[in-house]
C-alpha cells in the first residue's frame, strides 16, 4: 500500500467550548499526533510559554509574515492576530505525520478553502449556560470583554454547518474518545487511500 | 437536539475477507447495534440456525418477495439468492436504531443506490495468500467451487472504490476497533445531525 499523507485535524469552535482542554488530552493519548503551534499577537496568559502554547509575536512581525504568505491562515479576534505558520504543517503532512490545529472559526474556514481534505471538527459546549460559565471562569478579561466573547460565541455556533464533525464537549473523556474515533475512522476512508491490494504476502 | 435516525452500517467485501467474524465481534462489543438477518436459498452450514444466521428460504419464496419489492437488496451468488428483508431495517433506522448488515458486494451496491446515507465499509484480507487460506479452511466446498470463489474474490477487490471506508482484517481486535471508531465518528458527522443548539440548560 502506498504511503498515505498525514491528516490535518482542525479543532475549532466558539470561545469557551473547551477545545484547548480536548486538544491537550488528545495529544496526551495519541503521542503520534503533532500539534501545530499558532502565532498570536495577544499577551501570554499566566503560565503560557512562547513556542509551546503560542508563538507570541509583535503585530509588525505577523503582518510581515502575512505579506510573505507564510501563514496557512490568520485572523483577527478581539483586536489580536492569530495565525498558523504554513511550512511546518505542510511538510509534516507530506511526511505522513498527522497534525492537529486548534484554532478560531475564521481561521478554520480559511484553511478549509485552501485544504478541504482536512478533518474539520467543531467543538460545542453542552449549553449556553455552560458556555457563559466557562468564559467567566477563565477570569482573565473584563466583564465587557467577556460579554463580547459570549455574544460572538453564540453567533459562531451557526458555523457548525461548515464542518465535517461536531462534538459536544460535555464530559471531557467522552469527547476525547469521539475525537480519537474520528481520527481512526478518517484513516480508513477510501478516498484518503491510494489503495493497492498486494498479491505478495 | 432533534432525534437522529439510526445508521445503516453495511459490512461488505469479498468472500474470505472475514466480515462474518468482524460482524459477530462488533455485535458482541456494541450491544445497541442490531443485526439484520439476511435471507438465503443456500443450505445451512453445520451449526447455522434459521432466523439467527440467515432466514433459509426456498427459491420460490424469495422470488415472490422480490416480485413484491420486499427486499432492500438481493443478489445471486454461486447459484443462490441472498437478500435483505426491507421492512425491519427501514423501521429500525427511523426509530433511531443502528442496524448492521453483512452482505456480498452486489447487494451492498444495490443498497448504496437506494440508501446512499448508509455507511459502506469494505473488509479486505491482508493478502491474497491469506484470502486463499481462509477460503480453503472453511472446507465446506469442493476445490472447483473454492477456485471459483477465489477468482471472484480477487475481481471483487476492485469494488473498494465504491465504498466509504476500507478496513484491512489482519488482526480481528484491531479491525473491530476501527469499525467501532467508524460508527462513533459517523454519529458525529454534521450532515447526519439536525443540529439545534439549545439555549436552555
Q: Tell me, what's the shape of chain A?
A: globular
The oligomeric state is: homodimer
What does the largest sheet of chain A look like?
5 strands, parallel
Strand content of chain A: 15-25%
Low-confidence stretches of chain A: none
Average pLDDT of chain A, rounded to a whole number, is 89
- By DSSP, the count of extended strands of chain A is 9
Radius of gyration of chain A: 18 Å
Biggest contact: A-B, 33 and 33 residues
**CATH fold-level assignment of chain A:** Rossmann fold
- In whole angstroms, the N-to-C terminal distance of chain A is 12 Å
The CATH homologous superfamily of chain A: P-loop containing nucleotide triphosphate hydrolases
Helix fraction of chain A?
A: 25-40%
Indicate the CATH class of chain A: Alpha Beta
Named at the architecture level, the CATH assignment of chain A is 3-Layer(aba) Sandwich
Helix-strand string of chain A? EHEEEHEEHEHEHHEH
Structural class of chain A: alpha/beta
Largest sheet of chain A, order of strands side by side?
A: 2-7-1-8-9
Number of helices of chain A: 7
Number of domains of chain A: 1
Catalytic activity (chains A, B): GMP + ATP = GDP + ADP
Keywords (chains A, B): ATP-binding, Cytoplasm, Kinase, Nucleotide-binding, Transferase
Enzyme class (chains A, B): transferase
Subcellular location (chains A, B): Cytoplasm
